[in-house]
Amino acid sequence: MSKRVFNFCAGPAALPEAVLQTAQAELLDWQGKGLSVMEMSHRSDEFVGIAERAEQDLRDLLAVPSDYKVLFLQGGASQQFAQIPLNLLGEGGSADYIDTGIWSRKAIEEASRYGHVNVAASAKGYDYFAIPGQNEWQLSADAAYVHYTPNETIGGLEFNWIPDVGDKPLVADMSSTILSRPLDVSRFGLIYAGAQKNIGPSGLVVVIIREDLLGKAHSRCPTMLDYSVAAANGSMYNTPPTFAWYLSGLIFQWLREQGGLEAMQRINDAKQRKLYAAIDASELYTNPINVADRSWMNVPFRLADDRLDKPFLAGAEERGLLNLKGHRSVGGMRASIYNAVPEAAVDALVAYMAEFEKQHG
Amino acid sequence: MSKRVFNFCAGPAALPEAVLQTAQAELLDWQGKGLSVMEMSHRSDEFVGIAERAEQDLRDLLAVPSDYKVLFLQGGASQQFAQIPLNLLGEGGSADYIDTGIWSRKAIEEASRYGHVNVAASAKGYDYFAIPGQNEWQLSADAAYVHYTPNETIGGLEFNWIPDVGDKPLVADMSSTILSRPLDVSRFGLIYAGAQKNIGPSGLVVVIIREDLLGKAHSRCPTMLDYSVAAANGSMYNTPPTFAWYLSGLIFQWLREQGGLEAMQRINDAKQRKLYAAIDASELYTNPINVADRSWMNVPFRLADDRLDKPFLAGAEERGLLNLKGHRSVGGMRASIYNAVPEAAVDALVAYMAEFEKQHG
């Protein structure tokens, strides 16, 4: 068996090795029951126990208040881009959206098909290298909610603060930042996150929704996209993605064993400090993002000369440092350093970057 | 490690042991690449290779004509109940539906929210114990398509013929019968099937759609629910359920190794004959379905005295025969004998049924 690589993929992303080992050990025979989790009825006592424990562990990790529902759904964040207006906008309603990059613009584009979108602030004026301060936001009085993207996975831009939107429901795409540190869920109306970065495998999206936002779906919202139907059925209106739910549950247990989100915050902070310090101290690598708005999870960087990209990536791969190529829309490099990417991976990357700079700088 | 049980669950259902063993062996390290399939970018060469091979194997198994797209989507068959009218009905359009049981009625209910549904035939007059012959169908001239449910998973009612609907697109929910035997795909406009019965794990739904039916989505159909968007992006408009797709691919390879769908037809025919013969020969067990319309995959049966249900199930469980309890809406027993349920499982069940009847008959 070959050595496991260090995987800097933006998603589907690295998973904790200990979690994969548990899943492997019980793949044909879960806890002596003689069958795989994948072969269990979603309504069996065994699977319902797995599902409920996963929800409770996630609630504990994030200290989710009791007036919020936690939903385990399908379709990823992209399906949420439609599902949110279909559930919250009403007929011909209006919402405020903040544009900080590619993912927030995708959310804006889809929401515009269901009602009026007011782009209350945009990072465009900063070339998407900085987040507009709240003093620049033009929130509208009649918005049904305010949507933003706390972390832009491609741009590498992250809010280190939670917007104050008064009594409007704040809606956040936390796909690439959820569980990276503690969060005050009570500040939000709705949080959603595709699983394949910090939660588990792809094919699952977690929605945390304040209960007073349920029951407002548009009359033609597909039943499967109505949050209140999912909430009333414990996310089992139909067969859920059982294996992804189970594996996410193993990750929640692993996070608790690491010491919860306070511990992850310390580790993730150390990881991002090391990587940005290495970039900032070098003559070869640059990160364009305003220092206060740099993402902890997705660190894009460029080499001074594009012609060095290929040898850099080839050398990285030789050393077992995988998936460092930046998103095709922006080029350069990107290191995604989610919870499951250990500090040792960042150490190995930083050492390689120094070695490469010495050779090519 | 305990013995693997015989699992008669209606879904999520049994998976071939050989497939689970392969998945287990490469769970942490796929083909020496040092990472799990779950950790691969869906746009990596490795995963694209896995995805394309899965699609090709499915096309080969079903001899899918080249003018059909094969899509790997999320949300299960229940999401298709909305997605089909959103894509095919147009604004205020009309469609014909055939009512043969609980699942077709769910499809009817959801479609009715998007246009006019003409129930062209119903098994209600037969207490859902027989399928109305085509001479009883009242198809309408203006239907955009004709929808039916070739196999009713709960009722245990199955079409052994393909309806003739002229030049209307025939749409079929094949969740619990796909891949159980050869199929003439060219007779259909659209076939859909939730994976968790005969395809793979839950969280995946396969759609096979004739290309001329693409590009007709309603203006407010969510982008993620538009078949033409999925088709144009190779089912990767956003991150697909990669592990479920991979595992389904392993099952398609396994089916090819078994000899393809002709071989599965022989095996499945033998399995269903044995089980129905045991029921029909007994004084204790009954199946109410018209013999010509009996399901090969889902075999419901009742004991002459309901008070024997509990001891029957307890004795079955002691012998490693699991999930024989019928659906809560109909009671009694149900044995789902999908592709991955071996003939030995049916033999063990038939032997137990005889033993139980001797003791309690």
Commentary on this structure:
Two copies of one chain form a homodimer. Chain A has two domains: about 20-255, Aspartate Aminotransferase, domain 2 (3-Layer(aba) Sandwich), CATH 3.40.640; about 260-360, Aspartate Aminotransferase, domain 1 (Alpha-Beta Complex), CATH 3.90.1150. In chain A, helix 1 (about 15-25) crosses helix 6 (about 240-260) and helix 7 (about 260-280) runs parallel beside helix 9. The longest helix of chain A is centred in the last third of the chain and has 22 residues, at about 260-280. Chain A starts with 5 loop residues before the first strand and ends with a helix. Chain A has about 350 residues and is an alpha/beta fold. In chain A, the strands form four sheets. In chain A, strands 2-10-9-8-5-3-4 form a seven-stranded mixed β-sheet. The first copy, chain A, has a three-stranded antiparallel β-sheet with strand order 11-12-14, with helices on one face. Chain A has a two-stranded parallel sheet with strand order 1-13. The model of chain A has no long low-confidence stretch (mean pLDDT about 95). Chain A is globular, with a radius of gyration of 21 Å. Chain A is about 35% helix and about 15% strand.
Class of secondary structure makeup of chain A: alpha/beta
Helix content estimate of chain A: 25-40%
List the total number of helices of chain A. Answer: 9
Mean pLDDT of chain A: 97
Instruction: Give the percentage of residues in beta strands of chain A.
Output: 15-25%
- Based on CA inertia axes, which overall geometry of chain A fits? globular
Tell me the number of strands of chain A. Answer: 14
What ranges of chain A have pLDDT less than 50 throughout 5 or more consecutive residues?
Answer: none
Main-sheet strand order of chain A equals: 2-10-9-8-5-3-4
Architecture of the largest domain in chain A, according to CATH? 3-Layer(aba) Sandwich
Biggest interface, chains and residues, is: A-B, 69 and 69 residues
Binding site for L-glutamate (chains A, B): 43
Subunit structure (chains A, B): Homodimer.
Function (chains A, B): Catalyzes the reversible conversion of 3-phosphohydroxypyruvate to phosphoserine and of 3-hydroxy-2-oxo-4-phosphonooxybutanoate to phosphohydroxythreonine.
Cofactor (chains A, B): pyridoxal 5'-phosphate
